[in-house]
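Slide 14.
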Amino acid sequence: MANHAPSRNLAMELVRVTEAAALSAARYMGQNNKPAADEAAVDGMRLVLNTIEMAGTIVIGEGVKDRAPMLYNGEKLGTGEPPEVDIAVDPIDGTRPLAEGRLNSIATVAIAPRGSMYDPGPFVYMNKIAVGPAAKGVINVEKSVEENLKAIAKATGKRIQDLAVILLDRPRHDQLKAEVRQAGARIRMIDDGDVAAALMTAQEGSSVDVLMGIGGTPEGVLAACALRAMGGEIQGKLYARNPEELARGMAMGYDFEKVLTMDDLVSSEDVFFAATGITDGELLDGVKYFHKGARTHSLVVRGVTGTVRQVIATHSLDKLEKISPLDY
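Slide 15: predicted structure.
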């Protein structure tokens, strides 16, 4: 239990964090330079996080899996004043799509009271299932693909043939694809970016009904923070890539058979999440440039109130560059 639970709407401050990351990274769209894009996003995110009145600790950092410049686990951010909070970041969810000039790259950050976020340690993959509000409470990551799709279809009032399942395009999902096809549902493949994919399931008017498959554990925590406010649900189980990783995890006390529910991934409703589009996608528009300025599109959510905001911002790059060390 945190000593100082956040009460003010930190989400409106977090959107400045993701805007800075997106504006810094978007110049690298299609430049095939993932390290430079990551570094730009991290620098933008860290600069603004350190201006927020909070005593923050990074619980879900980035860099180890992507060999990127890090906002590392345990790093202290903010002014040092209360509230005490956990921070989860993914400065670029979809680094490869950004580098290759493809869709669905976003900058994301979440904050919750200290001690409320799940810490996966070095185990960066999990088997996940995520749905929107209509199917909340009917999914089970341990059940078969067909059982879950039947439950989702019944809850949403659709036929299984109407459902769209979003999957990361990976060889490890060949069997999963076969099972989805056997059940009769439609499939939507993505190159990267399973935070955005999880959020699409809860976005009003979205063409995506469910996210399935093995993706990032950090991304699962970030998605859980957003889905808290958006009314959706995510479940997962840690996934070991080989017997050695499984043995190491078990020796460290991690349970790879435990179903991680929303409450396991983030145990507080007092959670804040923000995301800003870097490249265009179904969830968010990417950064758009015009003469001496840029436009960003962000999603901002607050768990306690369930408020979900769309924020369209116009930025004067001339003015920003006069007061900021960042290269926009």
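Speaker note: The longest helix spans residues 34-49.
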